[in-house]
User: Fold this.
Amino acid sequence: ATSSGLASLRAFSGNAVRAASARADWHRAGARSHARAVRLDTAWSRTWPEAALRLTVGDFVTAAVPWSRSTRLAGLQIGTDFGLQPYFPTAPLPTFLGSAVLPSQVELFVDGIRRWSGDVASGPFTIGAGPGRIDGQGKAQLVMTDVMGRISTQEFSFYETPRLLRRGLSEWSAAAGAVRLDYGRLSFAYGNEPVVSASWRRGATDRLTLEAHGEASSRSGVAGVGAAWLLGPVGVVNGSVSGSFGARRGRQWTLGFSRNSRHLHFAADIRRSSTGFADIASHWSAQPVLASDSVQFGFNSRDLGAWSLGYLRLRQQGQESSRFALANFSRTLGSRMTLNASLRENLKSQRDRSLFVSLSFTPGRHGDGNGSIGLHDQRGHRSHTASYQRNAPLEGGLGWRADLLESDGRWQGQAQVEWLGNPGAAQARLDAHGGRVSVHGGFSGALALLGDSLLASRRIDDGFALVSTNGLAGVPVLVHNAPVGKTDERGLLLVTQLRAFEHNQVGIDSAALDESYAVGAVTADAVPADRAGVRIDFPVRRLMSVVMTVADAAGKVLPPGSQARIGADGITATVGFEGMLYLEEPPPGEAVIIETRDGACGFRLPAGIARRARVNLGTMTCETLQ
Assistant:
């Protein structure tokens, strides 16, 4: 019997978070058992979102540039974190120049999607496309309609890539500490010498981004520079040179090129290192590669599907080089099926070949289930797979999965069921292989204390929100219009998986409330801080309404449209057909004055109206006022 668990503890206040995580394992074989617990990470962090700055004290992974490696340290790190400003565009944004003879309305389309629409005066103008998350070549159109109704169109080509930083924008990080050793195996094992590391990137122009990285210990260090350069619509060239000094001296250089467009993709990268080159990570982990070459070519077409071909060569210290050819294909078949195929060929050994073909399908109209069948051939050994799964609904419920594998005449299967609810997710799995059956079970969730509310919830990885409906249970809660659960008996629900520093639309489904309840706003904008939570209160309240029939002293109902005024606060209402008068939350014992065509009359509400959703007072006599 074996069991394991992963636990994390977080406390937050404002933009400061203290977090700790650990793993525990227990194993029993016969009469002997073994238990072990390992600390993973402990850190305190503080963020300044307005400056996109993060400070971490404790355990962390150092920042790196594309041609360097990260290292896990225990110490202090401070630097830029653009994730704190998710709506801030860091890449250069394309701008488009135009000229209008007359005042005109202008629409900007980027790859067929309208990005901007507005009016411009006569003369030259400039329009920015805004952040578009485009990686590669794009097409833009300016459509101008002048005051005479004449339409003109201008077309532009541009190239946008997140590999570059906007002109004048910098990204940096600095760290100092000791290297964590045997992470995941030992709790407190560190290198015996201090280590420093720093990275820096800056947009020199909108087409050129400069990079630098350095790291050092008491024995050795590394320093290097690099750049990424946009060659107009051709693509992006990147390169770097770096060298190690101290106990091990060597050099490393990289060179690469990439080009993306709507239908084509090409990338080539080369890396070379001398045998003496060593970074900080190589003193405690794997050595840098001596040579690495990769080439990728991709083609995407609606009719022919998506194709990609690749070549990879790798040589590590003390080993012979390895070379592989790769091919992938994917195509949708109708609206519910997708065909995928991949091939990996070892160019130095014809026997080392792997082929995988699969067909995925979604039989249900609502996409709540999906399945696949596949064929896998590796080094002459062929296997067949079949699987089907239905995910648990996001608002809670049951999900399941079944897998079947046949390999060389042997069969094995797996069945799993999952329950997703407000307190978390529970899983149970049954494995059958070679005549043996094993059972597995697990549960994941969280406990959160916000103010005086302690709640069990689903696993919390990033931001979250505590939703309150003023004590009303069973109210459906939505995130971006998708149901995620219902409030508990206290009228509370902890909503997880929100994105920190982003605008998460959280709301309640007012259609699930009957007419006896009133609610103000049904949506709210939740912007939690890093791994922190916010509270959202929806003021749901149950109405106390009163209905009655109003008649004059002779027993004749008052005419419709007569205006009623209740109490000194001036609450007004209108008499309906057949003398019906409806009041919400009327003050008990207050006088009601009704203006009719024949004059004014009045009566007084009972002093002891029951606090129920709807009270019928029967017929009330409206006495004529003198």
